[in-house]
């Protein structure tokens, strides 16, 4: 359950002191102005008698308030609980973020979650203070507001990016909600810079960007990704409309010396894919996590407590594409990280769509292969053993016919059950895919040899059963414990190759994480 709105006296103190720790945990609405703000808003503090507090922006807008133009509520960090895990509201929010209500009714969203429409609406109102449609409406208008404020994207592009099918409808909804036409947010014209688009992606600190880049750099695929000490860059899109993005730290300035945000620079991304691209990057870099909540829970374990103190900003590094992660996971069974990267690079180079010259100049050569490209592909000469080839082909076929997917509506147990039903996919591989393709905070590959060795401190190794039992107390954040233990292992020894103690026809263990 999400923590309730902080007590009024706490909200009042946080508002008056502009305490950044509460940014995104509540919003301040002012009756006399009809505007709601973040608790860190630099505007003069209103009188307490005129203030009412709301747990989120959607609840404030449902009560008739409009967002502040100065503190920009769209930049507030998310309440991490409601964007993660198996709770119905968390899964519903994940689907709404993917645009599930852009063109479909609430009944369809409820059906995907196997819950009644009335019950889903009741849960949202009880826990978030706004109905699902209200949350969806607030989210896309705030996204449009950010695009209008930060980019030179034409109004038509902003409307499409925010999920509106027509500019006329977008203008009407925006005017009704914010009492101004969209163009008024652009008081000064912005200069377009080709096809480049820059957006600010906020997070709740602390955030360990060097550790995130270090993990991604060790697994970067040549021709698809470029990772250095300060930025992650990769090709995106498809054969018809390829593009690329770059993610690094938002630069500090005199006005904001310590911005809690990443900078995403996009090239060649159509407006209709912009919303999906932003959500993929947020998931990939785990920007919606609440590190204090996670640490407070996991630090109750004496083994994890020092790891959390040493790296308080460690996040779950996900991947860009689910199929790409699944292929990497299969190739990485029982080999080192370096070997897995080499084999995956060969596969992607042979079967991925080549890119035109402008992309080559940026360090890109091809896209990652699609499932259709690998179903009947000839893997001869790549260095992959027959069982791995069969598993990759099986995954591609299963994704094509719908036996498995990366649907955020599924619970972790449902996801794992579907994937382990495929030949060659054991519990380790399925949980690894859940960690890195879904960013699921509770995925837990108990069969992992590194985890079994790292949890004890006396040099011994525990069984998967014992590890799983110990980790029950870590729910619903077991995935973070995994990465803390993996990080400690990689810091203390070079990448290692794990060998199963009991070889099986279906691989369940992995190499170094």
TrEMBL record:
Pfam families tied to this protein: Ada_Zn_binding, AlkA_N, HhH-GPD, HTH_18
Record-linked CDD domains: ENDO3c (cd00056)
Catalytic activity as recorded in UniProt: Hydrolysis of alkylated DNA, releasing 3-methyladenine, 3-methylguanine, 7-methylguanine and 7-methyladenine
PANTHER family according to UniProt: DNA-3-METHYLADENINE GLYCOSYLASE, DNA-3-METHYLADENINE GLYCOSYLASE 2
Keyword Ion transport: no
Enzyme Commission number: 3.2.2.21
Superkingdom of origin: Bacteria
Required co-factors: Zn(2+)
Record SMART domains: AlkA_N (SM01009), ENDO3c (SM00478), HTH_ARAC (SM00342)
Primary enzyme class: hydrolase
Domain HTH araC/xylS-type span(s) in chain numbering: 90-188
Entries under SUPFAM superfamilies matching the protein: Ada DNA repair protein, N-terminal domain (N-Ada 10), DNA-glycosylase, Homeodomain-like, TATA-box binding protein-like
Residue ranges, annotated region (Disordered): 493-513
Entry-linked Gene3D superfamilies: DNA Methylphosphotriester Repair Domain, DNA-3-methyladenine glycosylase AlkA, N-terminal domain, Helix-hairpin-Helix base-excision DNA repair enzymes (C-terminal), Homeodomain-like, Hypothetical protein, domain 2
Family classification: Belongs to the alkylbase DNA glycosidase AlkA family.
Protein's name according to its UniProt entry: DNA-3-methyladenine glycosylase II
InterPro entries cross-referenced by the UniProt entry: Ada-like_dom_sf, Ada_DNA_repair_Zn-bd, AlkA_N, AlkA_N_sf, Alkylbase_DNA_Glycosylase/TA, Alkylbase_DNA_glycsylse_CS, DNA_glycosylase, HhH-GPD_domain
Keyword terms, alphabetized: Activator, DNA damage, DNA repair, DNA-binding, Metal-binding, Methyltransferase, Transcription, Transcription regulation, Transferase, Zinc
């Amino acid at each position: 359950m999400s923590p309730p709105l902080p007590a009024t006296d706490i909200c009042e103190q946080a508002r008056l002191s502009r305490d950044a720790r509460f940014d995104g945990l509540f919003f301040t609405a002012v009756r006399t102005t009809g505007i709601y703000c973040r608790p860190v808003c630099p505007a003069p503090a209103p009188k307490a008698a005129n203030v009412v507090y709301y747990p989120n922006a959607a609840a404030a807008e449902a009560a008739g308030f409009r967002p502040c133009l100065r503190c920009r509520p769209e930049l507030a960090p998310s309440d991490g609980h409601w964007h993660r895990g198996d709770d119905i509201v968390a899964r519903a929010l994940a689907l709404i973020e993917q645009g599930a209500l852009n063109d479909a009714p609430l009944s369809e969203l409820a059906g995907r979650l196997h819950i009644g429409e009335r019950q889903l609406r009741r849960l949202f109102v009880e826990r978030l203070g706004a109905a699902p449609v209200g949350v969806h409406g607030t989210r896309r208008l705030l996204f449009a507001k950010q695009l209008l404020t930060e980019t030179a994207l034409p109004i038509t592009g902003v409307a499409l990016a925010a999920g509106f099918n027509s500019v006329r409808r977008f203008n009407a909804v925006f005017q009704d909600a914010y009492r101004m036409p969209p163009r008024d947010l652009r008081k000064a014209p912005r200069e377009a810079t080709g096809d480049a688009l820059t957006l600010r992606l906020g997070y709740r600190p602390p955030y360990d960007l060097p550790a995130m880049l270090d993990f991604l750099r060790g697994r970067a695929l040549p021709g698809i990704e470029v990772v250095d000490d300060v930025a992650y860059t990769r090709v995106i899109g498809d054969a018809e409309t390829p593009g690329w993005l770059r993610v690094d730290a938002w630069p500090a300035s005199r006005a904001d010396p310590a911005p809690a945000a990443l900078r995403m620079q996009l090239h060649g991304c159509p407006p209709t894919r912009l919303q999906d691209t932003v959500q993929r990057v947020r998931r990939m870099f785990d920007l919606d996590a609440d590190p204090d909540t996670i640490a407070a829970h996991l630090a109750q374990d004496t083994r994890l407590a020092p790891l959390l103190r040493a790296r308080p900003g460690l996040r779950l590094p996900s991947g860009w594409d689910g199929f790409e992660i699944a292929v990497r996971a299969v190739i990485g069974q029982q080999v080192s990280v370096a070997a897995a990267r080499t084999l995956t690079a060969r596969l992607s180079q042979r079967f991925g769509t080549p890119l035109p010259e402008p992309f080559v100049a940026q360090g890109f050569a091809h896209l990652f292969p699609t499932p259709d490209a690998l179903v009947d592909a000839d893997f001869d000469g790549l260095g992959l053993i027959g069982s791995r080839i069969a598993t990759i082909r099986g995954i591609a076929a299963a994704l094509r016919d719908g036996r498995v997917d990366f649907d955020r509506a599924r619970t972790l147990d449902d996801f794992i059950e579907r994937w382990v039903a495929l030949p060659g996919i054991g519990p380790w591989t399925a949980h690894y895919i859940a960690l890195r393709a879904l960013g699921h905070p509770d995925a837990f590959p108990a069969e992992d040899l590194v985890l079994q060795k790292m949890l004890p401190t006396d040099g011994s190794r525990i069984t998967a059963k014992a590890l799983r039992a110990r980790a029950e107390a870590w729910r619903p954040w077991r995935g973070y414990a995994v990465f803390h233990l993996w990080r400690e292992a990689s810091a203390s020894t070079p990448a290692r190759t794990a060998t199963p103690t009991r070889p099986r026809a279906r691989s369940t263990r992995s190499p170094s994480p």
